[in-house]
Amino acid sequence: xxxxxxxxxxxxLDYTPMIDMTFQLIAFFMILINFTEAExxxxxxxxxxxxxxxxxxPFEVPITIQMMQDGRIIMAGQLYQDVNAIRPLLNxxxxxxxxxxxxxxxxxxxxxxxxxxxxxxxQEVIKVCQEMKFEKFTLRAKTETSY
Length: 147
Hints:
five-stranded mixed sheet; 3 helices
């Protein structure tokens, strides 16, 4: 920061470097923002539960599958009409895990099902994932406070 002296009583500060640094810090922290909510679709309204609590720590290998009210599946930002349509995506996830020295059993499947979706459809998603050798499942719910 430059300080220019103009006379005995007046000192002018150049704020340009300080403003530049502030914008750089803002950009840096925007990059570090937690993007866990980026995989949430507003069309999927989670059921409310008093027992629901956030996980203690973030999952190491999360794979999010969302189910809409009518049973359509959203995975990797794409909309699929049938649960069997996600098999190629799960196969791709298995391949990527294999290249990292992991197995499908190391991944956590996060299922976000609409509050009015049928339980049988959620079970079908779990069944398809199990056939692809995935073992860990988490069902999401909205935290409801009890008074």
